[in-house]
Amino acid sequence: MNRRVGILTFHKSLSYGGCLQAYATYLLMRDFGYDAEFVDYENPYEARQKNAHISEMSGCKEIVSTLVKHVLFKQRKSQKRAFSSFHEEMPRSKPCGGKKDLDSLYYDVLLVGSDQVWNPEITNGIDTAFFLDFGKAEKRLSLSSSVGSHVFNDEEKKIVQRCLAPFDAVSVRESFAKEQIQNILDRPVRVTLDPTLFIDRALWSKESIKYEDAPAEYILVFMVSNSYPHYEKLLTQIKGILKLPVIMVRLNTARPHGIDHVVSPTPRELIWLISHAALVLTDSFHGLAFSINMRSRFIALPNIRNNVRLNELLNMFDLSDRMATDQSLKPEMMEEPDWTPADNKLPQLRASDVSWLKGSLSA
User: Fold this and answer.
1) What pLDDT, on the 0 to 100 scale, is given for residue 50?
2) Is the pTM for the entire model greater than 0.85?
3) 282, 301 contact by CB (below 8 A)
4) Domain containing 150 — which CATH number?
5) How far apart are CA 38 and CA 169, in angstroms?
6) Which residues of 104-141 are buried (b: 16+ CB within 10 A; e: fewer)?
7) CATH of the domain at 328
8) Which helix (H) or strand (E) holds 42?
9) Is the predicted pLDDT of residue 351 greater than 90, yes or no?
């Protein structure tokens, strides 16, 4: 019988990046020979924020904006189309509503990982469940966990230190998180790749699903911020050169000026759309990560909320010249990127992180 691993993350996320990094973690553990499933627990605050009802909102502006998205632009329908079937496919434990349910679980390995699972701003204070403070397990590990941009205060540091003490191995997604945690933990803290980059191009191609309504050739716009209008001029220039229709990934039906098709693909369809696009225009970390991993020509746009991660990823693979710093199109951006550094470095980083993870699981 295979050893069992319980994965704790935001497994019901309404975010493409959240879903894909969770799924990547599952694929990785499955590839290692584990029977993997997600611990079916949701932080109450995060769940409420994700599914906020109009009656819970304050302020006319927020209510009107939500009504427009949900009624006029069918946001709920788009979200359901994108994520419902994907969520249902993921193997899960019994539903866990709180500490008592969580404490009844047993796994050979408990693994918390990816996404901002250690960011108290998302979970309304530190949720110790995401530090695996429950259940029975032979091993407890963290894989590429993130604190986002949060800085732990003194009280939070005490909780983090206590909860991480029983861990067999700890890895985080960014150096920013390592700097904070390494100072309060008496063991090495490793920075590892985002889980989606643990999975190679061949497996992602196998896991992707064709988006049936896509044109034969297209430009793909995948943005997680609301800054598209700022780059409309840039897109107009790109369309003038490539003479191709533009598909925008969007979780509602509103179609901005300059966009030919608005789509709400499933996460697996998004991988297909990225890998088959003539050009990807994105301000998403995972849009960028998949463009690099799948060798899709891309132009990166500054992310107004957190551009550090995008710049770090581009610098890692000598692709910083693919970042558009203003609305003007540089001619070299329309050329195929030099994939040589990524082709050389990514397999090495992946192999090193996989070796670390296997060693941590077997030690």
Assistant:
1) 75
2) yes
3) yes
4) 3.40.50
5) 19
6) ebebbbbbbbbbbbbbbebbeebbbbbbbbbbebebbb
7) 3.40.50.2000
8) none
9) yes
